[in-house]
Design goal:
By secondary structure, the protein is of the alpha+beta class. The protein is 33% helix and 39% strand. It has two domains: 47 residues, N-terminal domain of TfIIb (Single Sheet); 38 residues.
Length: 93
């Protein structure tokens, strides 16, 4: 959407090799990101969860939040597809 946000996070849970949770400590929007890895037959399941409060505020914020969610979902999906391709062919690094 043309807006760049910057933030700092800290790891609040770290249980290698299955779980890590980050909390935002600086930035416009508070969020918590949790990554959980679970063994699956023939692979690993990644559960990626983002819990966030509204940081945009006002009418614009309420209208923009669904669009931001869609954009974030697309970005995450593209990043995971790139990761999958790199895991298959590491030489593409």
């Amino acid at each position: 959407m043309g807006k760049q946000l910057e933030w700092a996070t800290e790891a609040t849970e770290f249980e290698p090799p299955t779980r890590i949770t980050y909390n935002s400590v600086e930035g416009q929007i508070h969020f918590v990101v949790t990554n959980i890895l679970e063994p699956l037959s023939g692979g690993t399941r990644l559960t990626y969860r983002v819990d966030t409060g509204s940081g945009l505020g006002g009418v614009f914020g309420r209208l923009a939040e669904p669009l931001i969610e869609i954009a974030q979902t697309r970005t995450l999906r593209a990043n995971l597809e790139t990761l999958a391709a790199l895991l298959v062919e590491p030489s593409k690094l």
